[in-house]
Every structure is written in structure tokens, then in C-alpha cells.
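Appendix B. Chain record.
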Amino acid sequence: MAPAHDADFLPTPIHPSLASALEAKGYKHLTPVQLEMADKRYAEADLLVSAQTGSGKTVAFGIAIASSLLGSASHFDRPDRPLGLIIAPTRELALQVQQELDWLYGAARIQTATCVGGMDVRKERRALERGAHLVVGTPGRLRDHIGRGALDLGALHTVVLDEADEMLDLGFREDLEYILGAAPAERRTLLFSATVPRGIADLAKTFQKDAQRVAVTVSTDQHADIEYQMMLVRRDEREHAVINTLLNSDSTSALVFCHTREAVRHLTARLANRGFSVVSLSGEMAQSERSNALQAMRDGKAHVCVATDVAARGIDLPNLDLVIHADVPSNPATLLHRSGRTGRAGRKGVCVLVVPQHRRSAAQRVLALARLTAVERAAPGIAEIEARYRKDIMDTALSTAEPDEAEAAFVAELLAKVAPERVAAAFLRHQLSSRPLPEDLTPLPAAEIHAKKSRYDKKVGHERGPVPAREPRGPDMEDGVWFTLSLGRKQRADPKWLLPMICKAGGVTKRDVGSIRIEDAQTRFEIAGDKAASFAEQVNRPGGTERGIVIAPAGGAPGPARQAKAKVRKDAKPGKKPAHRGKAAPSDPGQARKHKGKPRRPG
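C-alpha cells predicted for this chain:
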């Protein structure tokens, strides 16, 4: 946060009660979206606002609604029915918004209440009965309170939808329509969103009146306060690289993202075993556990948080200066939302993508689509981390104050009995023993790290270069064994993420996986014969697959798909048709044509 300053630096349209709170908090200047919301043009208008993550939207809409809530008064009267309602997509974000508005409106003597899933409903009702000027909540819980008559919106002046695009993505449209329908027609409605897809535009047309569109545009250059690094590693050394990155960082607070809950549990346990003060955050955790984890990070009791994307939206951890993507983000929006947890409100941050060699092109593609440039680097090794440890130990020794009066006598006695070299050795050993040991990583050849960039490195808008050559396909699957996986087209199964899932679940490489056939309710795939037994054993172990996903032997190859995708053997003679390896002939020629031309799996 910027240092304290004279209040004259803030725009004069800001309500005096809020200006004093901003000054006390140390604001020297406002972010672009906060400056826009301080403009008198928007004082009583409905607004549709888009701004990037980490731009200070909570303070921005706090500034925007002050005139509606307070008018010209310096503080609120005794609370009765709510004057303002803030709707947020997640419990964590709603609680964070309440905390932010509590200090922003502290001088105005505001009373706030929260209504979020996972919390005690009875306590929330008692808080509403006592009265609140402002209510912050999640869509489902707010609808429940309105439906039961506990939340009266009759006196409402203003409604704010925070992260509106995320709420639509999470399926809250019906709840939002119910809540907005229950609010007075004569009210202000403000929609804040990172993006404005069609669903948000439709919502604005339905529930806003002559809304003014405010787009706080972002430069096409990447976020200047975030340094992006792409760390190339061998596929089996990804977690080693995460550990060494944490050990080699100056960061006092780091956030590590994984795709799945199981990956979060595993990495959290591993970091805890290595001596890191670590907490986890995922959707399966109770609200109290999630709140405690975030509070431990804010209090400095924990320095690393391992999380799924539940933490990617809206969570603001003070002093967070390192974000690590332990799994490569699947799309640019995920990359930007995850990375936006650092480099917020003028603070500097580092974002590291830990990328296995075989995922390099995917990482480059996501970076290019997000219009970001990352410095390619190798993971820090043992020698680099040990050199850092020794420098830190030397700095600690040099900065230690002279012994005070209470210590002087014992220090003299110690030096009289023990040689200075032995005292220094004891200090060194104690310091080293308190630091986690770095992992031994296999260095990648420099040629692999600095290899010629693929077509995805080209600046967006330029002509695409030649398509990179595909890697050789898996082994000849003449003796392949078929398995099924309980995800299909209905679950939007895609080979891009099915293949890594299969490899991870069964402890095989992608060269051991043959054809992948996605059907309506399941997926069939082929495993090399010499790996099939160990694959079946691995996936049958507890925790071998992700929760809710079942992998089992298929008991035969799929006939139609098999014929449609019959593979030419390496030793096939020219002009000779390859034989079908499946037992059944196609029973539905249309089905065979449907599969024709589709790639067997990602190259």
C-alpha cells in the first residue's frame, strides 16, 4: 500500500467520510476504475463497469454508491432495513467485500451484515433483525433469506453485482433474477465485471435503466507490476520445481494453483512434510476451514497457500508477491485471474508457470492468447539455493546487534570456553537445519530451454507460422488393451485434458496410450499391452483416480470407431488395406463417418 499523504491528493467528489478513511489507509492515488467511479457524471446512474482483476473494484463501487447511501450526511442513522445490497459469487469474496467496506465506511458508522452459504443461518437472521445499512451476500443464501421474509428489500436504494460474469458462469442467473425482481423498481443497479459477455449485456438490459457503460480499458501491454516466468522441467519433476521455486524466492506470501482437489491435498501434504507453513483452499472444504486458511495467510502464520481455482476470483491476500501455476492454466482467462492475485494496486509480483517439456506448446499458446510474454528459465537447483541460504545466513550475522548488558556476560563466558570458529559452525548448522532441503532436479540442456519458439510465441494478430511437427504416436497397439473412463461428450470430455488424466491415474506416459474414443456417456482408450496390467492395478488403488471418475477394463474394442480409425501398420505394404484390430465390424456406417478425420489424441 502507498504511504500516507495529504487528503488533497484525492478527487474532491469523493464523500468526505470515505476520503478520511482512504487517507488513514494510506492511499496516495486511486486506480483508474476508482477515479472513474469518483466522477460526478455517474453519481446517480445505473452502471455497467468492466475492469481487470486486481484493479480495486471493491473500493471503486464503495465510492460509487456513497451518494446513494449517505447523500449529504456525514454518517448513517440507526440501522433499519438495508439501504444497499452487494451480491458476490463466492463466500470468500463476499466476506472480503464486507471487510473492505467496513473500513471504507468506518467513519460513517456503517452497520453491515453478511448472508453467505456455509455460515450459521440463525446468526444471519439475528443480524438482519437488528438492522443493517448494507448487506453483502451470495445469490443462493440471499434468495433464501428473501423467500423466508428475513431480508426485506423495501428500502433498498442500490444493488451492486460484483464479478457478475463469474456469477453467470456458476449458474446463478435464476437467483439473480429473483433477487433483482424482489428489489424496488426505483433503485440504482451497478454491474461490475471483468468481462461483458452476452449474458451480462442481457442482464443489464433487463434490470438496469439507461445504464452507462464504463470500460476501464487496459493497455495491450501486459500488467507492468507482474513479472511472468515460464519454468521448463521434466514431466516427473514438476513438484520438485515448485518446492525449489518457493525456497529460492524472497516471497513472504505465495499462492500455488493446482487443477484438482486431489492435487491440492497431495502438494499441501508434501510441502508440510518439508517444513513449509502451508494451508490449502478448495471447494470441498467447510467454510470455517476456508476462512481459517485465508486468515492464517493474512496474519502471516502461513506463508504458502495451495489452491484450486476457487481462489482465483476476487481473493485479495495482502503482500502476496508470488503466484505459481503448478498445473498449466487451460485458457487465458484462468491464467489472468490466477495471476491477478498478485501485482494488485501498485504492488509488484512474480508469476511462475511450471511447465513440463511436453506441455510447452500449450503454455506458449495460453500466454499468447492472453497477450503475455514470459521469460523462459530453468528451475533453481541445489547449488543456487544453497548459495542463497549462505547469503541469507551471512546477512543475518552481519545485521545482528552487539550483545546487550544482559547477554554480555554469557557471551564472554561462551567465547572463553569455545573457539569462535566452533560458535560460528554451531550458528551455521542451526540456521541450515531450520531450512528445508532443496530438491535435486535434472538440468535441461540449454538448447531445450532456449529452443526456437513455436508459432504460438508470435504476437497475436501476426500470421501464424508453420504447424509444429507432431510427436510420434504411441507404440504399435496390436496388443493394446481397451479401458473405459466414466466421462463422455455429455461431460464435455476433451482429449487435451483426458490424456494427462489417464497418464497420471495409471502411471503411464502418453506414448503408452493409443486411440481415445469419446462417446456420449463414456470414453474408451487403449493402453499398450505391456503396461495394461500395471495400469489396471494403479487405477484400482484408493485415490488412484479423481473423485467421481471410474476407469475400468472395457472388455473389448469399440467396433464402429475401431473400423473408422483403423491404423496403418508400420510394416503394411503399399496398396494393401490394413486389417481391423477390433473384433466387431461397423454396424453403423454413419457413426464411422462421424469419427473419420478426427485426431486419435493430441500430438
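Further analysis of this model is presented in Appendix C.
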